[in-house]
Task: structure prediction
Amino acid sequence: MDNLLWRPLPLLALIASFLILFYVQDSHTASFFPLKKPHVDDECSLLPYQHYWISSKRIVTPDGIISGSVEINQGKIISIVKGGIPHGNSKQKHVIDYGEAVVMPGLIDAHVHLNEPGRTEWEGFLSGTKAAAAGGVTTVVDMPLNNHPTTVSKETLELKLEATKKKLYVDVGFWGGLIPENALNSSILDGLLSAGVLGVKTFMCPSGIDDFPMTTIDHIREGLSVLAKYKRPLVVHAEIQLDSENHLKLKADGDPRSYSTYLKSRPPSWEQAAIRELVHVTKDTRKGGPLEGAHVHIVHLSDSSYSLDLIKEAKSRGDSISVETCSHYLAFSSEEIKDGDTRFKCSPPIRDAANKEKLWEALLEGHIDFLTSDHSPTLPKLKLFDEGDFLRAWGGVSSLQFDLPVAWTYGKKYGVTLEQLSLWWSKRPAVFAGLESKGAIAVGNHADIAVWQPEVEFELNDDYPVFIRNPSVSAYMGKRLSGKVLATFVRGNLVFKDGKHAPAACGVTILAK
Ligand SMILES: NC(=O)N[C@H]1NC(=O)NC1=O
Ligand SMILES: [Zn+2]
Ligand SMILES: [Zn+2]
Result:
């Protein structure tokens, strides 16, 4: 009898080891094209099927806006048809008809601080990607700071990847960090790039984070020579702290609650000084130059005067250079920022209305390449709301969930079109970050899709479902916006619908090969 009971044991052990192996592979998400889904299918999506059609009268494709349907199977777009559902009986097919709602490529936000591990109470993978999904953002690229430790080596990237497990509602790529230490030790930088960061980010002024020191133009040149081999971009916070005595005097004399004190303490000349140094180096990125293959991307441009002229000039002579601006520089102007309202503090600062007009102009004319949020949240207490001290409060605006309605609402005045939105928020950031199968509703691409109603307005009041970790720090709270996101699909999974997320977080990490 005893013998009979023990006989199946080897078989059971074999089955158990298979199950363990399956589980280990399953929970490892560090691959752009995972062989297996990280969770059982029915939890990843609010839809019970994998093969379906989305139909709408307004589908934004690279060939224009069409009325028709997009066929999706196993996470990919497999056909796009104008008119009705093809091949007869649509009753037997799973068709989601969105009527007049806009079906657009999911947004790609290439500048987001998710701060995990280390400062998850500021923002984390779970809250940040939930907010992204709720806003029609299907991919974010995470910055190498304000997490702790910062992402400046293969080992620290591994900590990041570990921290993402089962927390991603959308797909997430990573920028590494260029700091003096790895700029002067190319094997660390090589390790970081080989481990899959999409490029590296650097600061030309103090970053506000101790373990992310600033670099000089010499470090940047060193970094670019390594990046050239990988053909991945250098992403630069372009401000150089000039005239620090004046800065200190302002700190001592000016009213710290007044926005103008902060604005004066960080003038356009800081951006101009950094960009002047950068365009001197980008000359070498031209065809046949010593840095051919390297690319410099300037993040969060605020100064639309001389800084922009320098970038335009560099572009016209063939340098490999690009530039983004952020939602808040297009939405707000310094005149409207109230004393003590540190939600609007960011660097470079939000400048006056005339500057904002010129940013819009540059965007519409194609001199600014694309848009990002620079979503950089913190804890309410670090925004110092009680003191309202602009000089000491954390600098960073929180907006990830509102990328789409903000661009639409504030862009209306300038006649922004749906096609422009998808160029600035999907196509161009996809190309920039090297996300080949993303950024457009096109056959073969990932089914990353945002469905939204441009005409529907809403108020960001306390009842509105906001998923960022600390909604009170967001400069958009209290604003009325138009453009309501109905549904978000990430690689075919319906991850957000009518205010609710899918049961499981099945986004994947994106690593460059
Ligand atoms: N450390 C950090 O996130 N800084 C960001 N915040 C901001 O307003 N500008 C930045 O570069
Ligand atoms: Zn920055
Ligand atoms: Zn940033």
Q: What stands out?
A: The chain is about 30% helix and 20% strand. Residues 237, 299-300 surround zinc ion (ligand 2) (CB under 6 Å). The two ends are 57 Å apart (CA to CA).
